[in-house]
Amino acid sequence: MQTKLFAAALLVAALALPPASVHALRVAPPPGPTRIVQSDAVFVGRVLQIEPIDVDAKPYPASKTTVKYRVAVVKVNTIIRGLKTEKMVRVGFIPFVQPKPGRPIIGGRRGGPQVTVGQEGLFMISKHSSGKFYMAPDYGYFVSAEQKNFDDEIKTARKVVAMMGNAEAYLKSKDADERLLAASLLISQYRTPKGASVEEPISAAQTKLILNALATAKWQQRRFGDPDPWTLFNQLGAKDGWKYPQKIRNRDDLRDAVQAWIRAHGETYRIKRFVPRAEK
Of residues 20 and 115, which shows the higher confidence score? Predict the structure, then answer.
């Protein structure tokens, strides 16, 4: 039984990604829109210097241990989101440590971005819980200006920020891809907890718009990095009456099951969002 369940889980994961991406399940960064939504600040900047002394800080508030962050002083050239008038920001990175034979890699490589003095690029960063510096949390949250897709990443960032300011209007767009992208931004925003959080329901009206965007999306194989309706549906958390289809032959089976559930429960179901516990 466990073998069958494991095989089914692998099949579902494979159906949610393009074939060429299946081998990269553990190392690929989140899609561009997700990275923008999850970041406190997004800007184009240039590394001016690396501070000479690493900073010891907890990787998350409840941690009982600290890790060393290498801090880059970055000049802000173009603000896309989050910053106001800042000209310089401190951005912490966990430096790469050459492991002993047989030991895991810590920092660097696919564990997180690394930068050097003079390097320019797109920074997608979040405030460290200490408030003393920002950090790029994972691989893909810094895009070097030398990468071929740099201009595309800038365009995506600007488009996402514009949509975030009026997401509900895009949920009502006549274009299915625009509706799905707007839904992906809101789901990422609502379903990503930061620190100690509790859940609260969003409005019934917005829930219906998001579910409609998933139900009417194009469910055929999507390019890596594009919002995927099946992945987004699974991010919603517990869903009343939802059961995985008994037989999954292709993505049409996933689509049909999701659409059937939305028809049956869309009027009463409410998507829940994470909010900091202190706000309650």
Answer: 115
Least confident span in 122-131, 241-250, 271-280: 271-280
Shared domain check, 271 and 214: yes
0.70 surpassed by pTM: yes
Query: 124 near 141, Cβ under 8 Å?
Result: yes
The residues that bridge with 73 in the sheet, in sequence order, are 49, 90
CB atoms within 10 A of CB 34: 22
Q: Quick one: tokens of 171?
A: 């949920």
- For the chain, give the percent of residues with pLDDT over 70: 82
199 phi and psi, to 5 degrees? -105, 145
Q: How many domains does the chain have?
A: 2
Q: Name the residue range of residue 107's domain.
A: 33-147
Indicate whether 19 belongs to any domain: yes
DSSP code at position 104: P
Structure tokens at 119: 């390097």
Is the Cβ–Cβ distance between 33 and 50 less than 8 Å? no
Report the alpha-carbon distance of residue 156 to residue 22 in Å, rounded: 24
Apex 141 CA angle, 136 and 147, nearest 5: 135
CA distance 263 to 183: 18
